[in-house]
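User: Structure please.
Assistant: Input sequence and predicted structure:
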Amino acid sequence: MTRLYALTATLLVVHELDSAYWREWELFGLPGGVELFLAIHVPLLLLVLWGYERVIARARAGALMAVAVGAAGVATAAIHGAFLARGSVEFRTPMSIAVIGATALAGMALLGAAVSALRSAAAPAAS
């Protein structure tokens, strides 16, 4: 799960770099422009890094953060798929689309690994 978490988190960060280029705050109608967009990402990135540390420690919190990061990867694709379907011109470059697609795939794999880890941890020990 450690590598899947690192991969998914990295792809999400790369997508957020791309999001700044495309002025994603305008797509979502968020006030505050780039300043608020950047400010929001400071605690989010700290949380993702903390989650990675928890995954490495094999803590339950790490598996729960892996669910959140995996879900964020899948949600990224769903949200941007909806934007593309409605005709938005943003995120249409081959690299933007590749990053979004890879983020979704990595997110699904991470979700599967995290759910499996949580189920294994919750299973009663064999007698």
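Helices lie at 2-21, 24-28, 33-56, 60-85, 94-122.
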